[in-house]
Amino acid sequence: MTEFFGVPVVVLLGQVLLGLINGSFYALLSLGLAIIFGMLNVINFSHGAFYMLGGFVTWIIFSHLGIGYWPGLLIAPIVVGLIGALSERLLLRHLYGVDPLYSLLFTFGAAMMLEGLFRYIFGSAGKPYPMPSALSGGYNLGFMFLPVYRVWVIAIALVVCFGTWFAIERTRLGAYLRAGTENPVLVQAFGINVPALLTLTYGFCVGLAGFAGALAAPIYQVGPSMGANLIIIVFAVVVIGGMGSIAGTIVTGLALGIVEGLTKVFFPTASAITVFIMMILVLMIRPNGLFGRER
Amino acid sequence: MPATDKPRLQVDNLQAWYDESHVLHGMTLNVGDGEIVTLIGRNGAGKTTTMRAIMGVLRKRQGTIRYKDQDIVALAPHKVPRLGIGYVPEERGIFASLNVIENLTLPPVTQPGGMSLNEIFALFPNLQGRNRTIGTRLSGGEQQMLAIARVLRSGADFILLDEPTEGLAPVIVDQIAVSLQILKQRGLTILLVEQNLQFASAIADRHYVVEQGEVVDEVQNHALAANMGKLNAYLGV
Ligand SMILES: Nc1ncnc2c1ncn2[C@@H]1O[C@H](COP(=O)(O)OP(=O)(O)OP(=O)(O)O)[C@@H](O)[C@H]1O
Ligand SMILES: [Mg+2]
After folding, report:
1. For a tag site, which of A23, A156, A174, B139 has the least CB within 10 Å?
2. ipTM of the complex in this document
3. String of b and e for A89-102 (b: at least 16 CB within 10 Å)?
4. Which domains does chain B have, with CATH numbers?
């Protein structure tokens, strides 16, 4: 059997695939974080809680209303996005004029409250969510077994990430967003309603987190702490990628997933901290991140 | 008196602050339909601040600002440009994350009668064929043209133009002067901040002298030559 540094290639491929799945979630989440930071200057510690909320919306509408995976994939991001937009409009907005530390503390506190609320109502245990029948099973590639759902996660995450990239880099609304990130006052002086643009941005980005939560439901169990575990890594991904580039953030998310997966093969004990070691290395060599611009 | 007899823009006893620092101390001025009026004065006199206060970009203000006989002080900042008021800021404000065509088409069209892209490229040939260039990669003069072109496309027929010739080579200054003449012929109304009196006299109808946040004098363009000594004293040159 073919081997690579003493490790069967099949095992390597399996880990790359697993890594890509994690990377898909990193990409979906870090993308939203980076856009929110660029546009609102808010370090959104609620992002993981919104991811959890997406998972729970999917699970609740299934277990209580019988609404299945496919509608859930649409409903979860919409519900999460609306809640996010509302919280921006009513609460977060009032913290723009002051030190960014306040909004950081606010989003952190909001995340704690939301997670605490769900733990109180639903308990800490993860809720299993059935694999949708169209996506269960797998392909036997001869040398390895490829679960359909994993392929689906990677594919849909890539599509959504690309769609977001396209919307920001190639459309008129995206041009407003880029210009607003640079100079919101001037964008406003051209007749664009910047406060509404901020609400839309926040709603859309946390909606992405909600979508990731729905996507996670069948493979990771839905539980109150699912977001808290993930979000720390996602923050590291954003730091490594830097804030400058949408495409860079997506690529960094996927790449770090793979690197993490491969570390599991070669240094299993180090896999949990791979991302953080990468972060330290990158910060030492390029303080603005791999794709970052000077700020 | 019918509304049309009133000046297009009427600013009365305008006060403005940056945080605690009181910068405008009762600016009073008006601009009639189709007029080109300049604000001249030394550095730090408050010319830019006046424009920022009119646009509503600077929020801490008192006094009256009427445009087409409507009070615009109470309007949200994004509603002011929608009245057809275009702003060309002193720092030009070309976006580095947008290419030339994106910069050009960024301001939404607020009124019919704006220039088409073809008309804009005829007015500023330097911009033609540069669509995919990053906005801030253009030369200073080209960025100024882009900043002017951007508001012309939006249909604005009243333009606040802050020091368009600052730091530009004479040949570019001439080109901008010609384009402003064309805009004047099209009937646009312009409030211009300008330190270059020669440039200003070639296109303006009237000049206000601003000192320490107040209008201290007003000179008709035809009387400019006769008042040169006085103006030079104001400007300290
Ligand atoms: N952002 C700001 N914060 C605090 N003070 C400011 C700010 N901008 C301008 N000022 C002050 O307000 C006063 C008027 O400035 P303004 O920019 O309006 O002058 P100006 O007439 O446009 O000058 P210049 O010819 O140099 O452009 C100056 O004393 C300036 O120092
Ligand atoms: Mg100025």
Report:
1. B139
2. 0.94
3. eeebbebbeeeeee
4. 9-235 (3.40.50.300)
